[in-house]
Structure to design on (339 residues):
């Protein structure tokens, strides 16, 4: 006799209200639920700015905007949540305000980690696992929260990658200046130097070295990021007809579509790296070796993902814990992977 909760015909709310990379690594949960319980209905609670990412996955039936929900009076929020007739809420990213709201909305089954004190008051199904010292990947650890629904062992990274095959960018119009470069047969390389503080970063000077080498070899190079990123890096972007600064010029919808049309992407542990991985680009991730930010926990999913960490066995790379290990990665190691 099965001891798991059957989600057939149920409405399931997945709550992940943090950043793009975290959201991408949560999406395989949605595919697993739809595969095992095809009649289940999936709602995804996320921030406004992650909506274009969520729209790339057809297994999600409805998007719920947490940013907009927070602007409403609590009584209106509760009325709206109750109107969705949610049977199960899974708190993938622990958020005290979200958890309290779902309890007040009287969602019958509320699942969360037992390692958050507030979940003892707000969740009636608590799964015991820890992320901080685990050897598993973040996307694998998310599946711990699906144990009440039939998961008996965590999926492999290969299986997680396979579940993301339905992830597709919308074919939104790109700016004319960018479309003009897409007519060339040259290989396209995206360099995304900044992380908005979410990861240790590689110096822009090293991105410039990589860019110049690629331009000499006939590649097209595109720098991506926000307008704020652009202010920081523009002076270092090479001046070349095949080197394009897109910082601050693309919406997230457009960035998704553009990345999906490229061949390579280089970045530290940030959202665009995870997007490139699931889109199938040759994805080069720059990581620090120390826990809990190491690639074993945070590498991008994908069939063509390559991870670079500082080689701690070489004399010049022996660094103190207070230093940025990512900065020590040599530019030639990135260049060697782009051919």
């Amino acid at each position: 006799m099965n001891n798991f909760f059957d989600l057939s015909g149920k409405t399931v709310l997945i709550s992940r209200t943090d950043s793009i990379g975290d959201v991408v690594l949560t999406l395989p949960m949605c595919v697993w639920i739809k595969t095992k319980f095809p009649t289940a209905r999936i709602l995804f609670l996320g921030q406004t700015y992650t909506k274009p990412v969520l729209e790339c996955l057809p297994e999600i039936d409805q998007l719920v905007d947490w940013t907009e929900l927070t602007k409403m009076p609590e009584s209106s929020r509760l009325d709206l949540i109750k109107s969705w007739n949610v049977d199960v809420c899974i708190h993938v990213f622990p958020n005290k305000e979200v958890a309290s709201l779902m309890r007040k909305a009287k969602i019958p089954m509320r699942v969360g980690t037992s390692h958050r004190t507030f979940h003892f008051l707000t969740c009636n199904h608590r799964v015991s696992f820890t992320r901080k010292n685990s050897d598993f990947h973040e996307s694998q650890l998310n599946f711990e929260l699906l144990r009440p629904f039939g998961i008996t062992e965590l999926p492999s990274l290969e299986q997680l990658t396979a579940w993301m095959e339905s992830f597709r960018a919308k074919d939104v119009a790109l700016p004319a200046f960018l479309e003009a470069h897409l007519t060339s047969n040259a290989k396209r390389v995206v360099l995304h130097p900044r992380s908005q503080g979410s990861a240790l970063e590689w110096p822009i000077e090293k991105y410039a070295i990589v860019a110049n080498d690629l331009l000499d070899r006939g590649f097209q190079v595109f720098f991506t990021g926000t307008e704020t990123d652009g202010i920081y890096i523009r002076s270092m972007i090479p001046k070349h007809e095949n080197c394009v600064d897109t910082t601050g010029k693309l919406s997230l919808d457009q960035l998704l579509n553009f990345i999906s049309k490229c061949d390579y992407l280089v970045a530290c542990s940030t959202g665009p790296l995870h997007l490139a991985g699931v889109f199938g680009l040759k994805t080069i991730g720059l990581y620090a070796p120390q826990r809990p930010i190491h690639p074993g926990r945070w590498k991008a999913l994908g069939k063509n993902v390559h991870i670079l960490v500082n080689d701690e066995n070489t004399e010049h790379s022996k660094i103190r814990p207070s230093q940025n290990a990512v900065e020590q990665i040599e530019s030639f190691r990135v260049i060697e992977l782009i051919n």
Summary: The chain has a mean pLDDT of 94. The first strand starts at residue 11 and ends at 15.
